[in-house]
Amino acid sequence: MTTKEKILDTARILFNEQGIRSTTTRHIAASMPISPGNLHYHFRHTEDIVIALFEQLKKKYDKMMEEVQELSLTQLDDLVPVFDILYDQINNYRFLFIHFVEISSWIPEIKKDYQQLLLRREEQFKNWLDALTKQGVIVNLADKTREGIIKKLFIVGDFWISHNALYKQYTGDEARQDFVSTLRSVLSPYVNTTKAK
Amino acid sequence: MTTKEKILDTARILFNEQGIRSTTTRHIAASMPISPGNLHYHFRHTEDIVIALFEQLKKKYDKMMEEVQELSLTQLDDLVPVFDILYDQINNYRFLFIHFVEISSWIPEIKKDYQQLLLRREEQFKNWLDALTKQGVIVNLADKTREGIIKKLFIVGDFWISHNALYKQYTGDEARQDFVSTLRSVLSPYVNTTKAK
């Protein structure tokens, strides 16, 4: 692991545990420990660290979406491993999701980037739902229904963790199961039950 | 309107427009205008204002839920006026929803209160979905399905506004319609289509 990677990992954990307001570059340097000067050589501002972490997450998302496109799905439960990976990513970068609106006002670059990411993602999800229909996993979807499913997948995917922080505060396996079953339940009404098995 | 009510209204609008971090009791007093001393006579800390606004919203929610229980619903679209009222409430207090996790860490009283509110709400929603089934509006729901619907209603209800702020940034009627149709789409797969009309 390079110093840069170590800084990002330390920052991610501190942001997750202590929030984005009370974590400064000084705290990050102190908890590694490296000198503030060394940290500033790699990242000048806290914003630069947040942007680099957002980029990390984006790459992981893109990789996951590529893998999903290649999966051959025969039933809804074949998606559970994908939701599992998604859960790990969201949980590892939870500060981003919990403070998403705040971060996007603070760092306009992230806002713009995330909008473009969601636009791309929306197209990918459309193709992916169409493939699930063709494979007989889910029923034919009207355009508006498909749009609604994608919107719910986005909202549940991005904000389940905030809902959980406010309400049940599940941790560990309970949290993972709740996340997976909530996402699954967005699709389950559309399972093609007439499919020959 | 009493001074206290005017303070709350001014604070709510400033919180919505400028966020919770950059809005101080000093700003609120200045934009009314009243003296800081007068404001402090009514509310000692920003926290006290946030708590009072949360209480306002809670009362409005409770009133709305009572009205919903009394509605005689014959089809899913009879719920649209309820979602409309909900939209107005969420939009009027959007700072609470956008910064919900942050506020709940900052003010533990709100966290505890909101958990109890959701517990109560979960029971109300269960009864309400059962009533919709009895009235033939939606099909019979397995316990787990009903639980999933309620969770999705909570997540979409509380976080649609954050999702919108990050993605489409709809305003006015477009925002309202998108909110209503997304909430409606949580229930639409369960409409009882065999019902005699």
UniProtKB/TrEMBL annotation, chains A, B:
List the molecular function annotations (GO) for this entry.
Answer: DNA binding
Residue ranges of the HTH tetR-type domain?
A: 1-61
Write down the InterPro entries for this protein, in alphabetical order.
Answer: Homeodomain-like_sf, HTH-type_Tx_Regulator, HTH_TetR, TetR
Keyword tags: DNA-binding
Query: Which ranges of the sequence are annotated as binding DNA?
Result: 24-43
Q: What's the protein called, per UniProt?
A: DNA-binding transcriptional regulator, AcrR family
